Amino acid sequence: MSEDRLWKFRRPEWLNSVWARNAGVYAAGGLFSLAFYILLDSAVWSKSALNGSSIHITFVDWLPFIFSSLGMLIINSVEKARLSADSFSYSGSGVAWKARVVLFLGFAALAGGMAGGVTVFVLRFVVPGVPFPAMTMGVENVVANGLVGLSQNMEDEYSYNLAL
Amino acid sequence: MPTAGLKTIIALSFVLAVGFLLVILSCALWHSYYPLLVVATYVLAPVPNWICSHCANPDDFVESSGAAVLDLGRFCTGFLVVMGIALPVLLAHSNLITIPAMVMSVIGGLLIYGTIISFTMFFQEEQEF
Q1: For chain B: N or C, fewer Cβ within 10 A?
Q2: How far apart are CA B91 and CA B84, in angstroms?
Q3: What distance in Å separates the CA atoms of residue B52 and residue A116, rounded to the nearest whole number?
């Protein structure tokens, strides 16, 4: 078992326990909630009296978050055990291939959401040179999409280590 | 031990009352009743976990679809718990409630949720059997 290991440092044993997995799932939900409320905060703040500028949050600002949430949903709906299922006899007709395609679409949506967050931030806030209290809305957009991606990674760590 | 159970119940209800007092005070002192949403959030927080634990099939080790439902419940619970903290911070950032109201409602919400969690932890065995 130890001959085919690549890295010098092994993962600690407690990371494989059920307890650590449950804590990871709770933390993923928390991070997703944090992302959603950071974005909602920017939207509420743009409507409040504190926002002196003429920049407001529109549907375009929500679009990257919608895409990364959709990607997260797709990735978590795929049964990870099917990724290496082609060698088994009961799973004919290329289940692993389908799983890889759907998983690829999910990751593409997730990465597209993160890239879209940066795009909205650059095009709407950096290029026109928005002063700082309004700039917060753009920063919050980027942070929210990053948090969605982060929660995805935390939740998947365990199942990939089982599957691959 | 009925006496220990009684003391636990009294202590928990006292903490719950203090939590509600803090949240309602944070609403009433500044005449803006948004922090009451925190109470609704924390009361709703254990519900997805509870529903999904009843939906799941614990004997299903092969397909692990029961574990997926459990994970969904945990995800929603984590979402709602962080929402209980994030909602007052959001309201305070947009000047809908004041900063002291935010602090009071966060502390009150955590007390309420802690009461619910410790109540289910203390009295789980009596429910199960």
Answers
A1: C
A2: 12
A3: 34
